[in-house]
Amino acid sequence: LVLVVDYGAQYAQLIARRVREAHVYSEIVPHAMSVDEMVAKKPTAIILSGGPASVYVPDAPKVDPALFSTGIPVFGICYGFQLMAGALGGTVEHTGTSEYGRTSVAIDDTGVLLHDLDDISSVWMSHGDSVTAAPAGFASLARTAGAPIAAFEAPERKLAGVQWHPEVAHTERGQEVIEHFLFDFAGCKPTWTSSSIVDDQVSRIRAQVGDKRVLCALSGGVDSAVAAALVQRAIGDQLTCCFIDHGLLRKGEAEQVKHDFVQITGVDLVVADESERFLSALAGVSEPEAKRKIIGREFIRSFEDVARQIAGDKGIDFLVQGTLYPDVVESGGGDGAANIKSHHNVGGLPDDLQFTLIEPLRALFKDEVRAVGAELGLPDSMVWRQPFPGPGLGIRIVGEITQDRLDLLREADAIAREELTAAGLDREVWQMPVVLLADVHSVGVQGDGRTYGHPIVLRPVSSEDAMTADWSRLPYDLLEKISTRITNQCPEVNRVVLDVTSKPPATIEWE
Ligand code: XMP
Question: Where, by residue number, is the active site (predicted)?
């Protein structure tokens, strides 16, 4: 286990991913965690992330110097590098030369950290302060115009750091710098692979469940399918899957799940039509967090009903969910993270939950889930399905959810998806939410008359893990086709607009 200490911004996520790409398991922890708590997790190494603060600001996040005497190897990146320098007696100053973006670097001494990497010439920087004197006993390895000491190390103490960001793609040979720390400094072993994840989870699930029965909430998406397949591998027919039709599904979705999943896995499936329950609970609600909480609660109530149906008063003790690491982090569940939105299966759970949750994917990013799915033998058509959020079309109608609005959006969404597939772009585009701005009207002219309808937003994005995303540059011809078909076929829609915002600042879904 490698702990990535989060000093803010998005860097910690990226570092954690890079460590895992080196086949070493990593977890993000908040900077407020005490050294004792960190040591208790028995990490093989600790990485201090970059962050937006200046080490001089009075309430800037700090590092407890005791961390450096635990004997645990520590690597500091950017802000973490400066914290390490400051805590061990080096000098960090505001030199007046900031560096942002691509920066030339000179490697003076490769040492252990940069061995074989003396040809690194440009790195990605983002700093105002600089380390001007290394702590005693540290060798300085590199410099840039604005950073007299841009990398240092003390190999016998297993401490090292870099001012630049080795985790970003623009930094030359950044992954190798991270791997040198992991393998040459810290002695980590690259044993975190899809098959080790499967073995590990299968034995955990068996130990947790014993001979009890388990219900798995299937949504039609990749995550719950992989979670179900993993649990099925562990406990076979003690598992029953259940698909709740909450009335917020896309066109053809319920049929597709019944057909695909059951055929492929042979799993026992119960389908429950609960659309009336959800729609009446959502009536009159337009605030996104309120919608998410209601949907999360009604899902659980539906699962409880299904459990009673199939197991009577004995009920079912365990519920499997396909919760992922980003769901946990964004719902504010990653230690110390801000609550961006309550993912229905994390922040949206009711307090009086009767089930014990089994969440075998809770520590994984999406690409890791896909690799596990492939390892379990699920077909590409399932593993590469685009993400669709549990709350479904409910969080794609900006405004109140009504049956008419759902029907309208369902039609527009089906057209957009059909055209995207026909253009062969399903795999290139991470997902393309189609959003109905039900609270907005705009004027149009259709036929010979004035219309006063609603805009539909297309939100195609590319992403690696949904933590960050860029808007997809779809071909104009395709956009035109989608726009024409939607305005022709969907009454009340007289305008189709394209969302050209990355994440951050916008999230992928509108609500
Ligand atoms: P955002 O909108 O937070 O979305 O950028 C990140 C990814 O998560 C999906 N998403 C959800 N998935 N339950 C889910 O199962 C939810 O409540 C939920 N909210 C967002 C979203 O589609 C994107 O892939």
Answer: 78 (nucleophile), 165, 167
Q: Which of 324, 287, 283, 319 is nearest to 301 (CA)?
A: 319
Domain topology for 396-498:
GMP Synthetase; Chain A, domain 3 (3.30.300)
Which residue type occupies 497?
Answer: V
Distances (CA, A) of 269 to 43, 284, 322, 345: 41, 33, 16, 20
Six-digit token string for 362: 């809770």
Q: Does 165 qualify as catalytic in the annotation?
A: yes
What are the domain boundaries of the chain? 2-185, 216-383, 396-498
Q: Which two tokens stand for residue 448?
A: 């010979």
Show the low-confidence residues of the chain (pLDDT under 50): none
Cα 509 to middle of ligand 1, angstroms:
7
Residue 382 and residue 403: Cα distance in Å, rounded? 29
Domain 216-383 in this protein, CATH class: alpha beta
**What pLDDT was estimated at residue 95?**
85
Residue 333 to residue 325: CA distance in whole angstroms:
9
d(Cα 333, Cα 35) in Å, to the nearest integer? 21
Residues with CB under 6 A from ligand 1: 292, 330, 341, 343-344, 387, 389-391, 431, 466, 503, 507-509
Tell me which of 167, 330, 375, 511 is the catalytic residue: 167
In the reported structure, the alpha carbon of residue 343 is separated from the centroid of ligand 1 by a whole-number distance in angstroms of: 7
Q: Encode pLDDT of 452-483 as tens digits.
A: 999 999 999 999 878 788 999 999 999 999 99
Nearest to 152 by CA among 70, 101, 77: 77
Instruction: Report the C-alpha gap between 263 and 249 in whole angstroms.
Output: 21
102-111 pLDDT, tens digit each: 899 999 999 9
Q: How many degrees, rounded to 5, is the angle at CA 278 between CA 277 and CA 279?
A: 95
224 annotated to a ligand binding site? yes
Domain 2-185: CATH superfamily, name plus number: Class I glutamine amidotransferase (GATase) domain (3.40.50.880)
Q: Is 367 assigned to a binding site?
A: no
As to burial, measured by CB atoms within 10 angstroms (0-12 exposed, 13-18 middle, 19+ buried), residue 452 is exposed
- Check if 241 is active-site: no
What angle (nearest 5°) sits at the alpha carbon of residue 123, between those of residues 119 and 124?
170
Instruction: Give CA–CA dist 465/17, Å, rounded.
Output: 10
Check if 2-185 and 396-498 are the same fold: no
SS3 252: coil
- d(C-alpha 157, C-alpha 195), whole Å: 34
The CB-side HSE value for 259 (13 A sphere, CA atoms) comes to 6
**223 annotated to a ligand binding site:** yes
* β-sheet bridge partners, residue 3: 27, 46
